[in-house]
Amino acid sequence: DVDGPVGHANLERLRGEYPLPPTLTIVSGNLGESHHYQLLYRLPPGVRALNKPLDRYPGFGWCKKIDVRSTRGQVVG
Q1: How many CB atoms neighbour CB 75 within 10 A?
Q2: Which of 41, 50, 56, 58 is the most exposed place for a label (fewest CB within 10 A)?
Q3: pTM (predicted TM-score)
Q4: DSSP at 2
Q5: Quick check: 25 and 41 in contact, CB under 8 A?
Q6: What pLDDT score does 39 carry?
Q7: If 0-12 CB within 10 Å is exposed, 13-18 middle and 19+ buried, where does residue 21 land?
Q8: Who's near 25: CB < 8 A, 6+ residues apart?
């Protein structure tokens, strides 16, 4: 879940360091501000992610305005 211009800039930096595969992108959230969207990925079997902001994962403190949603997380369409 990418929130606004800050999140988008951080995602672009993240893509420069960790190539991300193409995926489905859903525009969401605040339509008055650009760059609110969600990227959907399937994790490999046995891999789990926690529902929390990416900047709270070790080593990703600079990734502000990007949230991870996984098992028991929610995306409403």
Answers
A1: 10
A2: 58
A3: 0.87
A4: E
A5: no
A6: 94
A7: exposed
A8: 37, 38, 39, 40
| pLDDT at position 77 | 66
Q: Provide the token pair at 3.
A: 């929130």
Residue 19 has which token pair? 């190539």
Task: Give which of 57, 48, 50 is closest to 73, Cα–Cα.
Answer: 50
Q: Name which of 23, 32, 24 is nearest 3 in CA terms.
A: 32
Residues 21-77 have pLDDT tens digits of 999 999 987 778 899 999 999 888 998 888 999 999 999 999 999 999 887 887 776
Concatenating the DSSP letter of every residue in 9-75 gives HHHHHHHHHSPPPP-EEEE-S-TTSS-EEEEE--PPTT----SEEGGGSTT-TT-TTBEE--TT---
